[in-house]
Design brief:
Length: 315
């Protein structure tokens, strides 16, 4: 790989992604496992989308947001896994600089929308359980669409800021990324110019993109817990907690892996631990979401059965 000389230093043309394993004998195993994970994730999330479309009972705000979450999960895994599978097949580990930044942009765009969408889902549960009389007006179709549109706009601003900021850095070599996709912490470690501004941006925008949503989610669920505990019927409490439990599990996985990925900057060198967190973030989480949301939900299970059997429910 020949670096090009730039006016302000050295401009890199491509990076080398080491991938998950360096032992050639293990690559076919990794390829099969990740192809399977990709197909299961895409199939599972498409099934959830189909179930929401065919089942009139699921034409509610909560499932509108869940359908959007399924689209994001398909997007998140598609941004990282197919390119990795392509490199395993071709035995090429290089990725062009522009492709690396494009992957980074779309990954942060989709993950950012995820942050806000999970917050919108918590707000929806708060309104449904704590403000049932005004729920239909406060969570109208217009409000739902505005919440999704604002989520995409905020995530776009965040992703574009990080991508433009990383494009200002110089890379003098080595150009080896010890990961299976391009992301900010790994690129920071390769830069030969100061990453202080980039790290400040990551921290500052991270507080806005993740900190604020977490506060809103926790606040919503404190109100929900208080309201649910006031329900006298055990069946009513169980039903309310089951819908909230699925959402909280997804929130825990999503934010837990995010904190480990981005809040340890400068403290540890890129390692196999980062790859493990990356697998959780980009593959395991999107793969588990359909299972988490359908496991204890008879409406979703019934709709999925109808989808698989080719039947359509009528209102």
């Amino acid at each position: 790989m020949e670096p090009e000389s730039g006016v302000n230093g050295t401009a890199v043309t491509e990076f080398i992604l080491l991938g998950l394993v360096e032992t050639p004998g293990l690559r076919p195993v990794v390829f099969v496992l990740f192809l399977f994970a990709y197909l299961v994730t895409v199939g599972g999330n498409l099934s959830i989308l189909a179930a929401i479309l065919v089942e009139p009972k699921l034409h509610t705000p909560m499932y509108f947001f869940l359908g959007n979450l399924s689209v994001l999960d398909i997007g998140c895994i598609t941004v990282t896994v197919p390119s990795m599978l392509g490199r395993l097949l071709s035995h090429k580990r290089t990725v062009p600089y522009a492709a690396c930044l494009t992957q980074l942009f779309f990954f942060h765009q989709l993950a950012g929308v995820d942050c806000f969408l999970l917050t919108a889902m918590a707000y929806d549960r708060f309104l449904a359980i704590c403000r049932p009389l005004t729920y239909s007006t406060r969570m109208s179709q217009t409000v739902q669409r505005i919440l999704v549109a604002v989520s995409w706009a905020c995530a776009f601003s965040n992703a574009l800021t990080h991508t433009v900021a990383i494009s200002t850095l110089n890379f003098c070599g080595p150009y080896v990324i010890n990961h299976f996709y391009c992301d900010l912490p790994q690129l920071f470690q390769l830069s030969c110019s100061s990453t202080q501004l980039n790290e400040l941006l990551l921290f500052g925008l991270g507080v806005l993109m993740a900190g604020a949503p977490v506060i809103l989610i926790v606040t919503s669920y404190i109100h929900v817990a208080v309201a649910v505990l006031r329900i006298r019927s055990a069946e009513g409490r169980k039903k309310a907690f089951s819908t909230c439990g699925s959402h909280l599990t997804v929130v825990g996985i999503f934010y837990g892996t995010g904190v480990f990925s981005y809040m340890r900057l400068g403290s540890v060198e890129a390692s196999d631990k980062d790859k493990g967190i990356g697998i959780l973030n980009t593959i395991i989480s999107p793969m588990l979401n359909p299972l988490i949301y359908s496991l204890r939900n008879p409406d979703v299970q019934g709709a999925l059965r109808r989808v698989l059997m080719g039947k359509r429910a009528f209102a």
